[in-house]
């Protein structure tokens, strides 16, 4: 498949299904008349499922675009399992009547593509993000911000297609993948991103702005630096602390020895007194 897919109204992935359904429908119609109705229904369904229309693409520099058609099911702070950092997670659920091609949400470079085999539970459920078959694309924007977008298979979906790989560039709105028959896409953004959608919103690939992501990461405040200094002592402070502990240990040992000597002397004096008074 070409790197820049031209969006020809019907997705290339659907032509085998559409052609096969059409041929069967014609053959069964010729042989059995109205018994061919289920085959015609399947052919019409395939036509609508594999539609792949072009969309307007907002060019705002800080805009993160929606990677798929569907409905927003998650907007929350979560852990990005691919980068192992806290992130803003936004999930789009696609039913069988949505367009199922995936478009890049950013302008940037792919740093890693990670595929994970898994189950095929309902993609609308939260556990689908960690249990279902999925394919993650880790990318970096042109300004250096890190974004992760994950194709997740669904209850009916049995095939995730991804056409990009590490080292390649993606342009916002560029088609990079396809999922067959129901699924979801998870997007993980840095915590300073501001969601532009809410749970329940219907969204469209490329044309809907999913979130606003500042071009540069926020600088660490002086207060945060002071807190980090307190929590993480310098390398020079560690030996000093160990030295203080050693002095304390020696002092405690000296006190214990002195107490033992005083008690021994007192015992000797007590014994001498008792002996002298015993003679009298």
TrEMBL record:
Pathway(s) served: Phospholipid metabolism; phosphatidylethanolamine biosynthesis; phosphatidylethanolamine from CDP-diacylglycerol: step 2/2
InterPro entries, per the entry: PS_Dcarbxylase (IPR003817), PSD-A (IPR033175)
Assembly with partners or alone: Heterodimer of a large membrane-associated beta subunit and a small pyruvoyl-containing alpha subunit.
PANTHER family: ARCHAETIDYLSERINE DECARBOXYLASE PROENZYME-RELATED
Family named by the database record: Belongs to the phosphatidylserine decarboxylase family. PSD-A subfamily.
Function, as annotated: Catalyzes the formation of phosphatidylethanolamine (PtdEtn) from phosphatidylserine (PtdSer).
Protein name: Phosphatidylserine decarboxylase proenzyme
Species of the source: Neisseria weaveri
